[in-house]
Amino acid sequence: MAGAAGAAMEDCALVLQLIARGVPARFPNVKYVVPHLGGPLPMLLHRLDNQVPAQHPNLPEKPSVTARRLYYDTVGHGSEAALLCGWKAFGADHLVTGSDYPYLMDYESYTETFAYISTVGLPQPDTDQILHRSAHSLFNFK
Fold first, then answer.
1. Cβ-Cβ contacts under 8 Å for 88 (sequence gap 6 or more)
2. Do 84 and 103 contact (CB within 8 A), yes or no?
3. pTM of full prediction above 0.90
4. Distance set, CA 101 to CA 40, 110, 131 (Å)
5. 90-123: string of b/e by CB count within 10 Å (b at 16+)?
6. First to last CA, the chain
């Protein structure tokens, strides 16, 4: 069971450590790509904004603002709820296609890691942004 949830929890913990230590503010030109849609992070942004500043009063901005400066890959193992939550939390321009290749789950193919993005009902411009433009602009692909 730890493997099924552990990676996503670690991804969230990574972002929380980056925020608490002010790393994105200190290194604004570094582009961070967090795996697995940030794990549970999208659901915690409001709570973080209300609770973290008391523990870390010297943060340069609300945790949600910092989290929205990062990028997140779309590895959600086909979970429409996870993709929709990440999309609402971070926006299509901060979601980049990703896969766990070569570590695919037994129940999903490499193609399915991307196909679900087109079937969740996002507005077509946002689907196109995620599938075709976010990574290009993030990495300055020509």
1. 42
2. no
3. yes
4. 21, 7, 17
5. bebebbbebbbeeeeeeeeeeeebeebbeebebe
6. 42
Beta-strand ranges (E) seen in 4-134 are 33-34, 71-73, 95-96
Q: What is the pLDDT of residues 86-99, one digit of tens each?
A: 999 999 999 999 88
Ordered structural domains, the chain, with CATH: 2-19+31-139 (3.20.20.140)
How far apart, in whole angstroms, are the C-alpha atoms of residue 55 and residue 40? 20
% of the chain surpassing 90 pLDDT: 75
Q: What angle, rounded to 10 degrees, do the helices at 41-55 and 80-90 form?
A: 40
